[in-house]
């Protein structure tokens, strides 16, 4: 799919902005703090309803204003999609898809498909397991909104079980209710584990192939879902292994007042030529692995939805060597790409056509270089 246009009112540093996009490549050039990432952030919001930088809607609304508005018009193979968001201080955001207000804001998923790659994504490899769980969860949710509901339920049930564990510590009488929460946690948790395992099984060969190409056959990338629950062939069997793990860990759980087994403790293993890249990879290797995973996600979304997602590349081109830049653009011929960069020269070797370039200066966006504002 691709986006035809974007409209912003009082979003971040923009008063009013209206842009028509190129179906292939759109490059935003400008100095620091001018409003380049803000545009990508607005696009991302129309896909997930959330920002990739903050959980606080207030930060998205222009400092001196009470409301912000975002609208995109997207083209898909068979349909068009219009997504609008209205953000208001101290209110739930209001989302419309094709003119109809959503009763549940999570229904925004599955309309605009977006993959982002930013320097932050290095965290995906470098930081703790929660970043990698988030990667799996976000990607699966985008393709399968029901997964997002399981996750929300799981987190709620987990919180309730943990609270109960703390209470039992003081009053044994609460022990009886624990079974109810145990059953819920294993039921929903097993669904999460199975979906994640499926996701990793599919993303593994895609990312390996892409990684091979980017590294000119030098590196073999392997990704593995690492679960503390034994994955078995059927749902029932996996459920059973979760049940027995939970039983085994009861004593420890009670002592610590928290649930120590389950998908909230899982991880995604990332290996290059057999070496754990999370601990031993160079910065460049880690970045390339993150990139391969993100690009694999593009193929996966295409396979699932028959639409290519939009790719947002925030500040990453200057960090890739020219071969990797070229590979990226060539491999993604059918994908609409939004790039931000501080120097057009960073993209010089790509022969970026004038028609793709937007200049951004102090929340003003123009097709010609802006000398002063
Ligand atoms: N709610 C807001 N209201 C008004 N201005 C805001 C708001 N939030 C952020 N800004 C301003 O937006 C600017 C940052 O925009 P953005 O992150 O898009 O910069 P950028 O062009 O991507 O810069 P860089 O090259 O440094 O990444 C800052 O000047 C910041 O003060
Ligand atoms: Mg930026």
From TrEMBL:
PROSITE patterns: RECF_1 (PS00617), RECF_2 (PS00618). GO terms for molecular function: ATP binding; single-stranded DNA binding. GO terms for biological process: DNA replication; DNA synthesis involved in DNA repair; double-strand break repair; SOS response. InterPro entries: DNA-binding_RecF, DNA-binding_RecF_CS, P-loop_NTPase, RecF/RecN/SMC_N, RecF_2. Pfam families: SMC_N. GO terms for cellular component: cytoplasm. Keywords: ATP-binding, Cytoplasm, DNA damage, DNA repair, DNA replication, DNA-binding, Nucleotide-binding, SOS response. Gene3D superfamilies: P-loop containing nucleotide triphosphate hydrolases (3.40.50.300), RecF/RecN/SMC, N-terminal domain (1.20.1050.90). The RecF protein is involved in DNA metabolism; it is required for DNA replication and normal SOS inducibility. RecF binds preferentially to single-stranded, linear DNA. It also seems to bind ATP. Belongs to the RecF family. This is DNA replication and repair protein RecF.
């Amino acid at each position: 799919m691709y986006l035809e246009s974007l409209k912003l009112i009082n979003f971040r540093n923009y008063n009013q902005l209206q842009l028509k996009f190129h179906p292939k490549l759109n490059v935003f050039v400008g100095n620091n703090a001018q409003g380049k990432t803000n545009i990508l952030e607005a696009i991302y919001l129309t896909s997930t309803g959330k920002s990739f930088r903050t959980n606080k809607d207030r930060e998205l609304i222009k400092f001196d204003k009470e409301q912000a508005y975002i609208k995109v018009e997207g083209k898909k193979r068979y349909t068009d999609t219009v997504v609008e968001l209205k953000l208001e201080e101290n209110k739930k955001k209001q989302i419309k898809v094709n003119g109809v207000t959503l009763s549940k804001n999570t229904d925004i998923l599955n309309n605009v498909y977006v993959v982002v790659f930013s320097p932050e994504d290095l965290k995906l490899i470098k930081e703790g397991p929660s970043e990698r769980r988030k990667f799996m969860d976000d990607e699966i949710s985008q393709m399968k909104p029901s997964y997002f509901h399981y996750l929300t339920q799981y987190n709620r049930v987990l919180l309730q079980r943990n609270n109960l564990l703390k209470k039992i510590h003081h009053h044994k009488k609460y022990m009886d209710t624990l079974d109810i929460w145990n059953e819920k946690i294993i039921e929903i948790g097993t669904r999460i584990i199975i979906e994640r395992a499926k996701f990793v099984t599919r993303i593994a060969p895609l990312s390996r192939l892409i990684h091979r190409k980017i590294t000119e056959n030098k590196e073999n990338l392997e990704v593995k879902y690492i679960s503390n629950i034994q994955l078995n062939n059927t749902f029932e069997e996996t459920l059973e292994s979760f049940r027995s793990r939970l039983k085994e860990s009861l004593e420890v759980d009670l002592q610590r007042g928290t649930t120590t087994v389950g998908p909230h403790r899982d991880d995604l293993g990332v290996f290059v030529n057999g070496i754990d890249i999370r601990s031993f990879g160079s910065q460049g290797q880690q970045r390339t692995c993150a990139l391969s995973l993100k690009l694999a996600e593009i193929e996966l979304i295409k396979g699932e939805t028959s639409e290519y997602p939009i790719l947002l590349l925030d500040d990453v081109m200057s960090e890739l060597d020219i071969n990797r830049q070229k590979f990226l653009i060539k491999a993604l011929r059918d994908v609409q790409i939004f790039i931000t960069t501080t120097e057009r020269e960073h993209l010089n070797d790509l022969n970026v056509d004038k028609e793709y370039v937007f200049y951004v200066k102090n929340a003003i966006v123009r097709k010609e270089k802006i000398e002063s504002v």
